[in-house]
Amino acid sequence: MDLSHIFNSKKFFSKSFCAVLFSLLSFTAFSQEHTSADTAHAETSVAHAEGEEKEEDISQMILHHIADSHEWHFFGDVSVPLPVILYTENGLVTFLSNKFGHNDHGTEVINADGVNLVNYHGKYYYPSAVKGADGTYITHDSKGDILNTKPLDISITKNVVSLLISVIVLLVVFIGIANAYKKREGKAPKGLQSILEPIILFVRDDIAKPQLGYRYKGFMPYLLTVFFFVWLNNLMGLIPFFPGGANLTGNIAVTMMLALCTFVLTTINGNKNYWGHVFTPHVPWWLYPLMIPVEIIGLFTKPIALMIRLFANITAGHILILSLISLIFIIKSVLVAGVAIPFVLFISVIELVVGFIQAFIFTILSALFIGMAVEEHAEH
Amino acid sequence: MIVGSIAGIGAGLAAIGAGIGIGSIGGKAMEGMARQPEAASKIQTAMLIAAAFVEAVALFAVVVAFLGTGQVN
């Protein structure tokens, strides 16, 4: 990955200027969104005292931003409702998320197709029989955990829409360039091909070949898919407005599915040596009761680490950026913006790199695990 | 007034460990690259993989801290 030529190029400065400009534009959008969310929170907590409650609001705001939701918020009061699909006791219930207003404090019971539901912090629960002391139909136990049961939620949420958008983008781009290769076989690449060819070759030469040896060809489709999917979604998560802003790779369910794909591939492709390593490790026989469970746990910790790494990296990045912006509202001084905003810009540029590195790490570790499974002979 | 939880302190301690780890990985990789500039790209790849493993430990701590403060369901 020798990238020094980028810095020597004359175009570098015009590019970096554009990048800075775009970042600044996005921050204005960011802060606008923030203030509107902030005022919305302020309205709901009129009864609350200032001070500590304010900090609580800000951490709520941050968690609200990184979480999934049933509507896609654009700016101010403008948001697009998304369909809610619940599998309840009475079968499937579907409605648009704004059909029953925006009350998500659990104070109002809604009746959707004969099923009573209550919306509490963006999630749908079955209401309690009586209203609690705090005015909600939600019952908490002494630890503050919610006791209400909830229907199976298979809604098309913000993350799902974002997932579909990225799938469409990937399909259009990659089917397009695949056809271009077919049509212009043996000729120099053109247009989109020229942008993506070095990256595809990077995945092949620096990720697949060193880890998988001559068997790389069979796993290239998976490695390329996972690389571009994770990278595109990391970048889309950094865009604060419409096509992005959904924090898809910062959702543990999505990273779990990706890690599960790697796990299935390793398990299916594991050869004699791989399983031999697990069930008859090269240790004295009396260590088997200890080693075999450890090796079996090792099979599962690898994809779990893969899942947590991507999830936590992206989530931590989002929380960091939002917290730095929130400093302005915690300290309540415009002057802080002079420090906070350049720092947020700096972190955002780092996040651009992290988005790439995490996609690279996920792909190379997948390749490494698959490579371990298909290796011909153990080296001892 | 400082409000927080003991889980936050734990995450901070894990961050110290990961910081030492990533620091030494980066330092040694620099050393290796200075000695053998022609192997720079290979060293870089291996460095990133090792750093990812170290980083994962710190991030596990972050996730545990979140669970500890009850903010991620």
From TrEMBL, chain A:
Keywords: ATP synthesis, Cell membrane, CF(0), Hydrogen ion transport, Ion transport, Membrane, Signal, Transmembrane, Transmembrane helix, Transport. Gene3D superfamilies: ATP synthase, F0 complex, subunit A. CDD domains: ATP-synt_Fo_a_6. It is found in: Cell membrane; Membrane. Pfam families: ATP-synt_A. NCBIfam families: ATP_synt_6_or_A. This is ATP synthase subunit a. The gene is atpB.
TrEMBL record, chain B:
NCBIfam families: ATP_synt_c. It comes from the Bacteria. It comes from Daejeonella lutea. This is ATP synthase subunit c. The gene is atpE. The record marks E55 as: Reversibly protonated during proton transport. The chain crosses the membrane at residues 6-25, 46-67. It is a multi-pass membrane protein. It is found in: Cell membrane; Membrane. One of its GO terms (molecular function) is proton-transporting ATP synthase activity, rotational mechanism. Key component of the F(0) channel; it plays a direct role in translocation across the membrane. A homomeric c-ring of between 10-14 subunits forms the central stalk rotor element with the F(1) delta and epsilon subunits. InterPro entries: ATP_synth_csu_bac/chlpt, ATP_synth_F0_csu, ATP_synth_F0_csu_DDCD_BS, ATP_synth_F0_csu_sf, ATPase_proteolipid_c-like_dom, F/V-ATP_Csub_sf. Keywords: ATP synthesis, Cell membrane, CF(0), Hydrogen ion transport, Ion transport, Lipid-binding, Membrane, Transmembrane, Transmembrane helix, Transport. GO terms for cellular component: plasma membrane; proton-transporting ATP synthase complex; proton-transporting two-sector ATPase complex, proton-transporting domain. Residues 7-67 form the V-ATPase proteolipid subunit C-like domain. The keyword Transmembrane applies. Belongs to the ATPase C chain family. It holds the Pfam family ATP-synt_C.
